[in-house]
Design a protein that fits this description.
Layout (H helix, E strand, L loop, with lengths): L10 H4 L9 H17 L2 H29 L12 H7 L1
Length: about 90
């Protein structure tokens, strides 16, 4: 099953080269944006932003799991989450 890309992602950022199978252009662009920020912002602020970003990402994945599993109930799933609704809600 091929990876589906969000429609708002520009094609040149989402392209996967055959030798690496990773979006290297998108990674380089994000590194060019983050590197100057890391040079200017104090480290304690960066740690707070990274922690907040990790928390927001974790919550977004948990919500996406619930939404996608409720929308596509009839499709077989390869990965089964033990105690599915309770574990995701507790996270």
């Amino acid at each position: 099953m091929p990876w589906q890309v969000i429609k708002s992602t520009p094609n040149h950022l989402a392209r996967l080269p055959p030798h690496s199978h990773s979006p290297s252009t998108g990674v380089l662009v994000s590194a060019m944006i983050v590197t100057p920020l890391a040079a200017v912002v104090p480290s304690h602020m960066l740690w707070i932003m990274v922690s907040l970003g990790t928390l927001v990402t974790f919550i977004a994945v948990a919500i996406a799991l619930i939404v996608l599993r409720s929308r596509f109930k009839r499709q077989p799933t390869v990965y089964r989450t033990p105690f599915y609704p309770q574990v995701v809600s507790a996270g």
